[in-house]
UniProtKB/TrEMBL annotation:
<dbReference type="InterPro" id="IPR036374">
    <property type="entry name" value="OxRdtase_Mopterin-bd_sf"/>
</dbReference>
<feature type="domain" description="Oxidoreductase molybdopterin-binding">
    <location>
        <begin position="35"/>
        <end position="179"/>
    </location>
</feature>
<dbReference type="InterPro" id="IPR000572">
    <property type="entry name" value="OxRdtase_Mopterin-bd_dom"/>
</dbReference>
<protein>
    <submittedName>
        <fullName>DMSO/TMAO reductase YedYZ molybdopterin-dependent catalytic subunit</fullName>
    </submittedName>
</protein>
<feature type="region of interest" description="Disordered">
    <location>
        <begin position="1"/>
        <end position="20"/>
    </location>
</feature>
<dbReference type="Pfam" id="PF00174">
    <property type="entry name" value="Oxidored_molyb"/>
</dbReference>
Length: 197
């Protein structure tokens, strides 16, 4: 069952800079979830990167906090047609999690606590394009917005920024995730309006 919050109905005047086609600005941070919100205690949180050969690399909360973090300000775009400018996040670049990972894979499936998955090409997570985020607007990331940790891939529709992140699994071939298996586009570029397959 989908869960909606404030912000899904209001249209706001567009700012001077362009929006992807079909989008409108919101000052809210609407929430759409496919099920109940997992409440994951940061003390028990863990992230696993698993290669196509089965090799695993793991980080716990203390390990995440010890990594070099960045403060980023980005626009985000939801497939449900809202966009939000200048959102402020703190997190670790995905590149940092791949420094010691040997892989020939081209694709990643992000896994979330609660069972949600989404697929992303590996290139879209590297070179400063994506983060493992744990703060939003200067505060710890709330569970309703994916806390304690979510993937942040702002150049794609926001369903690709998997909430409640617990793992990244590498694949040689593109493996559709939850929303992609249910009709959403495999890639999800908002500037090309890649909403549905």
């Amino acid at each position: 069952m989908a869960v909606f919050t404030r912000g899904f109905g209001g249209h706001h005047p567009e700012a001077d800079r362009p929006l992807p086609p079909g989008q409108h600005l919101t000052a809210d941070f609407p929430v759409l979830s496919a099920g109940p919100t997992p409440n994951v205690d940061a003390a028990r949180w863990e992230l696993t990167v698993r290669t196509e050969s089965g090799a695993e690399h793991r980080w716990d909360w203390a390990g995440l906090q010890a990594m070099p973090a960045e403060d980023v300000t980005v626009d985000i775009h939801c497939v449900t047609r809202w966009s939000k400018h200048d959102t402020r996040w703190r997190g670790v670049p995905v590149d940092a999690f791949f420094e010691d990972v040997e892989t020939a894979a081209d694709f990643v499936v992000a896994h979330s606590y609660g069972g949600y998955t989404t697929n992303v090409p590996l290139d879209d997570l590297l070179d400063g394009r994506a983060w493992v985020a744990y703060e939003y607007e200067g505060d710890p990331l709330e569970p309703v917005h994916g806390g304690p940790v979510r993937l942040l891939v702002p150049h794609l529709y926001f369903w690709k920024s998997a909430k409640w992140l617990r793992g990244l699994t590498l694949h040689e071939h593109d493996e559709p995730g939850f929303w992609e298996q249910n009709g959403y586009h495999l890639y999800g570029d908002p500037w090309s309006e890649q909403r549905y397959s």
